Amino acid sequence: xxISLITVCYNAESNITDCLKSVKSQDYPNLExxxxxxxxxxxTLDIVNKFSDxxxxxxxxxxxxxxxALNKGIAAASGDIIGIMHSDDFFAQSNIxxxxxxxxxxxxxxxxxxxxxYVNRINIKKITRRWRSQEYDDQLFLNGWMPAHPxxxxxxxxxxxxxNYDLRFKSAADYDLMLRFFYxxxxxxxxxxxVMVKMRVGGKSNVTLSNRWYANREDYQSLKKNLIPFPLxxxxxxxxxxxxxxxx
Length: 248
Known about the structure:
Blueprint: E1 3-9, H1 16-24, E2 31-37, H2 44-49, E3 57-60, H3 66-76, E4 81-84, E5 90-91, H4 96-107, E6 111-119, E7 127-131, H5 138-142, E8 153-155, H6 156-162, H7 173-183, E9 189-200, H8 209-225, H9 231-242
Parallel strand pairs: 1-2, 1-4, 2-3, 6-9
Antiparallel strand pairs: 4-8, 5-9, 6-7, 6-8
């Protein structure tokens, strides 16, 4: 089973080395690693080229943002399974992709997700939040839950059937894709109950209050688009579900 792993980057010289090292450390042999760079003008590509031995495909050209870049990576992917590793993030252990492949095969899964730790941007050994997921149930989405996007893996056939990231959304395209893949299909979902990824704090949708407001509005639009019942309730519940992550 081939896994296609996509990293999107743009002027990521400050953090991408940790990401690349963690991919190189993976002990799973059948990996297609795809880098999609938005035309960086810093040292990002110089760093990436130092890891050319693990990179299967490198695309470097201007794009319309992170989701457009992800769609380019998905289009280029030839693996049975597609996953994402953001340039700020890194694998928690060297056996994560081996565990992912094993879980897909053993459980005949179509979709997979797991746990995630948020870490300090400077001191990556300092955990600031622990995102712990649970076995899937449709009611979870109706109560403000969603899987941790950096832990999400899916068969390529799911993208061919259910579509890629919707570029009409600037910050909620990942949430929109999750709604389509998890809530609106009968794909077999599997929860891999391990910490898969370490994620630096400070994501795009959480940088400022105005960004958070815009992200909530886009979440609402995605819920309406996908005909999910009680969208306002879900928007209210989403941040409440995250509070306990700070106290684990």
